[in-house]
Each structure stands twice: as structure tokens, then as C-alpha cells.
Amino acid sequence: MTTRAVGWDATKPRTRTLAEPVRSRSEAARLAAAAEAACSNVLLASLSQELREEMLTHAQAIRLELGDVVEQQGGPKRVFFPLSGMLTGVRTRDDGSHYAYSHRGRESAVNAIGVARPEVSVGGGDLVVDVPGVAIVLDVPYYRALLERSTELLRAVLSHASHVINWRELSADCPGHHPVKSRTAYFLLLLRVHQSSDTLEVTHARIAEVLGVRRQSISEALGELKSRRVISLDRGRITILDRSALWQNACDCRRNADSARELQLAGRFEYTG
Question: How far apart are CA 231 and CA 250, in angstroms?
């Protein structure tokens, strides 16, 4: 499992509370800059700068490199707040095959809901980087303690949870009911949303692993999309030629990609009541 510290880098955990002042101008400037950068993540942007700065004194920033497994199935959990890129949760079935159960970018967080209570057993799988980027990471004990005392963080996490529930409800039947071509188009849309480029660094084998199907099925699906001039293919690379047509070819789960993009553009959660 590989993680790479980047940017403002990890700082040693401190005991400073929200009420305590930053001790120096240089530290204040560093934390303010980090807090501004953290606003790339919608959940973190929904918090006050004071709370973001307090969280960052306990956080680590890691680089997300394509193909890295940043968390393993059955291993210890951390809370990830992507600032860019996309993390895919992949579970392994009893027969050794794989399937993706979540895709998270800067519009959301990973494990922010599942690790909230220590008495709850958290499942999950491998957490794999499908679009390179950067994430802020918190250890679970600190995150839980902060969630217990911060109604502001709790409100943001509950708003995040409502979106996650909607995403899961929409895509719950996708693996068993939607055609491979439609699911392939949907996954390409997700990559496009989180990469902000029509040129996608992804292989047939990786798409097959994410969708839990044979590689040959993916090659056939991509070949059909290519024949319709929706995409072009190169070794380890797929270029989207017609985004509208790709959206039309995707399954109804495409609304998840639309929702993720809308949240990214909004920049923060909107609270009602």
C-alpha cells in the first residue's frame, strides 16, 4: 500500500482546540493557505475556516498516483477528503472476481460516514486511485472525537450522507441489470467528471475489474462506442469525442455523474433548515 506526502505535508498531531490561537504568524499563514486549498473538497469547503485549520493540524496530505491502493480490504481505515482525482472502492467476491461499489472525488469523502461510531463494524474493500490527485487524510480516532464535539462537522457529514444514499440507491441494481456497454459509458463519464479532460488514462483491463466483467466484454463495448465515433482508442488511453453521445449511451446511473459535477460546481453543501 503506497501513500505519498505532498504539499503542505503532514504535521504532527497537536492538542490545540478550536478556542486556542495559532501561535505564530508563519503558522497562521501556512494554515490559512492550507485551509484555502482544502476548499477544493466540497465537504471541507462547507466548514468554517477555523474548523478547517484545526482539522489540518491533525491531517496528512497524500498524493494519489494512478493505480495506487491507498487502503486495503480488511485493513485499518482512515478518512479521505479528495482535493482532486478519484478513488474507487473495489470489493473482492468469494470467487476472486472484483466489482466497484463507490467512486469518490472532491465532491465527497471516503469513510466519513462508516467510521463515525466505534461500535459499528465497517466493511469496505480496496481503495484504488483511478484518477490521480491529492487527498487530505485524517486518522479515525481524531475524526471521531471531532465529530462528537463539532455540530458543524456533523451537519456537513449528514449532508454528505444524504448524497451518498441517493447515489447508492440510484446505482444499486447497476451490476446485475444494466448492459456492459451502458455501464462502461457511465464509468467513462465518472472519469471525465473527476479528471476534467476528454483524454482518459485507463485500460480495458481496469474497466473490466471495476465493472466485474470479462475483459473481452469491455473490448466489445468500447469497440461499439468507437464505431459510433463516441470515443477513440489508443494503448492505455481513451479519448472522448462526443460527450453528449457518451451520456446518451450510459445507463441511468449517469445521474450520479451529473450530481457529482453539480456538487463540484456548487463548491459546498447547501443546508435547508
Answer: 13
Closest listed residue to residue 116, CA positions, set 161, 71, 69 = 161
Count other Cβ atoms within 10 Å, centred on residue 91.
16
| Separation CA 255–CA 105 (nearest Å) | 15
In 3D space, the residue among 44, 17, 78, 261 whose CA is nearest the CA of residue 159 turns out to be: 44
From first to last of its 273 residues, what are the pLDDT tens digits of the chain? 555 444 433 333 333 332 334 445 666 666 567 677 788 999 999 999 999 989 999 999 899 999 999 999 888 899 999 999 999 998 887 787 777 888 999 999 999 998 887 655 556 689 999 999 999 999 999 999 999 999 999 999 999 999 888 888 877 777 667 899 999 999 999 999 999 899 999 999 999 989 989 999 999 999 999 999 999 999 999 999 999 999 999 988 889 999 999 999 999 887 644
Cα–Cα separations (whole angstroms), residue 137 to 82, 151, 221: 8, 20, 36
Lookup: cell for 85: 482525482
What are the beta bridge partners of residue 239?
A: 199, 232
> Cα Rg for the chain, rounded, in angstroms?
19
Query: Domain containing 226: what range?
Result: 179-251
CATH number, position 121:
2.60.120.10
Return all residues near 20 (Cβ < 8 A) that are at least 6 apart.
Answer: none
Are 64 and 81 part of one and the same domain?
yes
Residue 222, SS3 per DSSP = helix
Residue 164: burial class (beta carbons within 10 Å; 0-12, 13-18, 19+) = middle
Q: Kind and range of the H or E element at 170?
A: helix 151-171
CATH number at 231 reads: 1.10.10.10
